[in-house]
Each structure stands twice: as structure tokens, then as C-alpha cells.
Amino acid sequence: MSASPLSIGILVCTAGRPEMLKDCLAALIAQTCEINWKLEIGVIDNDTSQSARRNVESIAQASSVPVHYAHQPKRGIPFARNAALDLARSRGWSWIALIDDDEVASPDWLAQHIRTASEHQAQVSYGAVVQIHDAPPPVWWKVDTPSLDPEGTVLRRASTNNVLFAASLIADDGNRLRFDEDLLHGYEDLDFFERAHASGNKIVWAPKALVSERVPVSRSQPQRLINMVRSHAAAHAQIDCKRRGFPAAFMKFGLKGLRRIVAGSAISGMSWLLWKAGLPKYESRYYKGRLRLARGVGNWYGLTRVKSGYYDQIDGR
After folding, report:
1. What is residue 3's predicted lDDT score, i.e. its pLDDT?
2. CA-to-CA distance for 44 and 46, rounded, in angstroms?
3. Which of 1, 21, 131, 287 shows the greatest Cβ crowding within 10 Å of its Cβ?
4. Residues 72 and 137 both lie in one domain
5. How confident is the model at residue 1 (pLDDT cuts 50, 70, 90)?
């Protein structure tokens, strides 16, 4: 990264969350930037009704940073993210940052990403996410917390919820990476960066590039958490099918899935009886059994290509 003008694009995919998007964009527009940076923002609306268009255009008119609107009518996270890559390619940005619409970036978020990538000579900088829950999650649920690894730790993959990467990953004369639109259970972002790593790109941890993620009450409800676990398990089985073929994936996830279904059903069934019999300590045991059952069912969803539907529901406003 030289002293010559540095073109950077920040991309946000959204669907039906105007209040969260507004907070997200406000923080992006207010980023601390160097004088030689050329910063732009792109919003990809994945709502068929284009519900974000009016707000984005209104924000763009008042913004000191150019804000571009694009619409991807085909619902699904991989489709929206590929539309984001298309926008990035059309704008010719040198560096591309991705953030979720339910997140708010710290004032120096982008500067920390750029610094980290430069100092560690990396093509990808992956930042930290701190979750802020509108209501406490259940005691049996393990809350995600940022890694304590030192800055510059080399990673094998990253997610799209807080990342900066060089445009060479998607350029015609580079790696030409796209998000796999078959991965509707999730994992499409991990797969993208795993392929980037396999292509020789360096991914590093950037703990000072911090964003906060708002977790609405609906996302902390027991059944919603169980559905998320099921979807993640489906994604792991599906990606294994794509990479190693169905026979190998079946030997791993088919058998593991059956064990999880049997064990999860037994644990949750017995624990439910004890919990309802007046032994409250078995409530957590019941839900942990439900999570195991969900992982087993999800494994079979991934193997048989049954849609989990988790991402069809929008949490937050």
C-alpha cells in the first residue's frame, strides 16, 4: 500500500432491516480515513420489494462518502454477496471490506484493517466481532467471543461479517473467486476464504478492527438457536459432499448424523421428563440434547439437500 490514492469499497448486504442498516451506514460514513484514501460504500438490497432503496438514496444525498445502491432480487445470501462482488468489480476498488447490516463499526475500524494488512503483508484482514444481546441468551448457549490470538496470527479462513481483502481475489487476472451459490445453509463465506487461502493468499487476524453486532431477542430464542445449529450442521455436510463426493461425506456425516439423532433424542426425551417432574437442573440438559439432535438432522439435510430455511427469517428491524 503506497502513498498513491487508495480506492476502498465497503459493501453491506441487507434485507428488511432499515433501522440496523441506518446505524451501520452512519458508522461507515464516519470512518477515520487517511487523506489519500478514496472511500466508497455499496449497499446490496436482497429484498424483492427493494425496501432499502429509499433510505439508502436519502443517506447518499447527505453523505460525504459516495454511497451506491444495488438490488439483487433473488433471495439468498450467496446471491447478494456475489452481487456485492459485481459492484466492487464495476467500481474498480483496490481493497474491499465486508460488514453485516446488523453491525456497527468502531471509528477506526477501516484504518485498523488497512494497517494490519499492510504491516503483515496480507491479502485478507479478518476483524473481531463483539455481540451485544438485547436479552440474555439461555444459560445453555455458548456465546461467541473474539479470539485472544495476537494480531497477525495467520488464519486458514475468514467470515464476511468483518473482513477486508485485496481486489486481486476477485479480479479476472487474479483468483476470480465467487461465492458458491449452492451453499444456502451457510458456509459460503468460509468456503470463499478457504479457497482464497488455498490459492496462496495470506489471511491474518486483526483484533483491533472491531465491530459490534446487535443480537435481537428473536435470535436468542431457544428454537431459533436450535434452528441455527441445524443449518450450520447441514452446511458442513453439504460442503463435504461438494469437496469429497457423496460416498465419503456419507461415511462421515451420515453415520455421525444417525448417532447424534439417536443420542440427542434419548437425552432430550429423558431430560424433559425429569425437568417437568420438578428437577429444573435438567432444563439445560434437555436443550443440549435438542442441539445434538439438531446437528444430526442438519447433517442429513446437508447430505440430502433438504433446505433448512433458517435464513428465510429476518431477525431485527
Report:
1. 56
2. 6
3. 21
4. yes
5. very low
Among candidates 109, 108, 75, 68, which has minimal Cα distance to 89?
A: 68
Q: What is the C-alpha to C-alpha distance for residues 309 and 227, in angstroms, rounded to an integer? A: 9
54-107 residue pLDDT tens: 999 999 999 999 999 999 999 999 999 999 999 999 999 999 999 999 999 999
Residue with cell 447430505: 303
Question: Which domain-ending residue is among 192, 218, 244?
Answer: 218
**Domain membership flag for residue 23:** yes
Q: Is the model's pTM score more than 0.90?
A: yes
